[in-house]
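Any chance you could type out some protein's one-letter sequence along with its backbone structure tokens so I can compare the two?
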Amino acid sequence: MTKLIAVLTAPDAALHDPTLHQRLAAAGATALQVNLDDDAVAPAMRFGPGAPITGFVTAWTDDPEATLAALTGIAEGTHVYRVTEHRPVEPPPVPYGERADALANVAVLRRPDGMSQEEYLEIWLGSHTAIASETQHTFGYVQNVVEEALTPGAPVISAIVEELFDMGGMTDPHVFYGSGGDDAELNRRITRLMTSVARFGADQGLDLVPTSRYLYDV
């Protein structure tokens, strides 16, 4: 099974459209995930170095070539990546088609110039994974290593990370970091996290996209 992630910058892409899901199913997709920057996450922080990312479509497929063609047809400017996933914290199950009760932050990461892929993955998938879980109040954590870009002109990226937080974390850092209202503990957690992400360049040049998360069985 191959996992493909489409990164979208089109604000009007109809990602919940059943006809889109049927088209992807006909192209070999066996399961779909939609992450959309929508009104439910409007208060959350978002930033990035390029065109604002509006959503992601993830497809697990038995026919990567056909599914790629279907994904690139979603909207102009869609770029698709083949990834290998790691799931250190399995997101809780949600009925198909229903919005997960979560702020699903998706970060698009870029490996720093001069750092080897081996060192990058050793830090990120190694020691940083535990630190991220210990310093933030996440109840879902999916790491996607980008193996290759499948669309011409796709921006060079190294990873796509999804972390699930309580909805209150959009506006309350104590909820986001799980610091229980203790300002000293909040600062300790932020400092520890930012020190860790700086080791592999995730403190700069990344896109952070708050999203609503949906799963579809096709």
Notes: The helical segments are 18-26, 64-72, 117-135, 173-177, 183-198. The domain at 2-217 is CATH 3.30.70 (Alpha-Beta Plaits).
